[in-house]
Amino acid sequence: MVFDRIARAADDLIAANLPRIFSGGWVANGRDQRAAKYWRRTPDDGLLSWARPVFLICKHIRALLLLPPLAPALALHGNGQQVSLDRYLAPAELTESKYGSVGGA
Asked: 79 lies in a domain?
């Protein structure tokens, strides 16, 4: 869905500008680097909030795992123990970590 919209927008942009590019009338506009913003990741960016829904916690962990060699996600359990999450956890595993083991086998 999003990919399709971006592909259509790119096609429209190229089609609208190709004639000017081929005729030599197209002018590239540089980016104003003074307006650019850069953020560095801090250790606190990896701290998970158990108040968030499980699917958002999963996405947070996955995003942090894609950015090595930075520190992985960190979780604080109720007893204050800090746990490093250095692998992707399935939603069921995270649900158990968040709410504890519930019933069953």
From this structure: yes
